[in-house]
Amino acid sequence: MAYQIQEINRRLQEDAPAMIAQCESAYQAQVTHAVDAIVANLPLSPIVLLAGPSGSGKTTSALKIEQALHARGIIAHTVSLDNYFLSLDEAQAPRTPEGMIDYESPLLLDMELLNETFHKLSAGEEVTIPRFDFASQQRNPAKSRQLRLGKNEVAIYEGIHALNDDIAGRNHAAMTLYISAHSDIYSGGTCLFKGTWMRITRRAVRDVNFRGTDPSKTFHMWYNVRRGEKRYISPYRDRANITIDSALAYEVSLFANYAETLRKAVEQLTPDNPRYAELHQLVDAFAQFPPIDEALVPGDSMLREFIGGGIYKYK
What we know:
Helices cover 40% and strands 15% of the residues. The protein has helices spanning 5-41, 58-71, 111-122, 195-211, 215-220, 222-233, 251-255, 259-266, 276-285, 304-307, and strands at 2-4, 47-51, 75-80, 127-129, 132-133, 138-139, 145-147, 153-158, 175-180, 184-187, 190-193, 242-245. It has a five-stranded parallel sheet with strand order 3-8-2-9-12. A three-stranded mixed sheet has the order 1-10-11. Strands 4-7 form a two-stranded antiparallel sheet.
């Protein structure tokens, strides 16, 4: 889908709450469609694999799916694939062409443990869910937990590599979902704001609000994130049974509240950054989006994952 900036601004000016509600309803309808598919597939597999690139809203979508399944009498357990990272061995770690550790590579995941876990869960056996500690770059056994799926229970595994050959490719009965911000915003026939820009904006805003991280670091590494997406994520998206478009037509107007902060972050980049020109175009585009009040965003909105103040708890 493609949106027009003139229509977005007109609708927000005339009745912002109504437009926001319509956007949220359309997104929720996609979640409901995914839940229908999971329920229909439950006799075949209790495993749900949810993939998508960084900033796509995977975490909130998984929580929304979990909530909707619960309303139908099905208990869902959401597990992040990040917990299956291998303890980092710098000598053996995959590298980018520049020689840096490639944190986007699926080779950092314990694929054998994952597939053993899927097999046991599908057979009704108990498994240990590890907990990866990013500070120490290794698993913390004290924070692991046990999981056994009973009747009408599912395990939702969410992560950027969930549709990879070594995960979804070896678990054909699992329900597979792919989420990303697919819709661009146009001014006439000219693309003004890309869906991929929505994702990097979400990440940068989350850094500001929750991680105490200078968003310039997020912008600096964006080119490597995009390279990883094209290599490790996009080639497998057609494996998804269901695709969710998480782009909300009003979100750029929401993030326009952070335009000056994001501009200052982009200005810290050097011209040799492969995404330098593109990121300057991104922050320049905010000038055409009058900001809207954050208070208008519902508490259960996926966008609350990035701006805060939502009803969901993120681990």
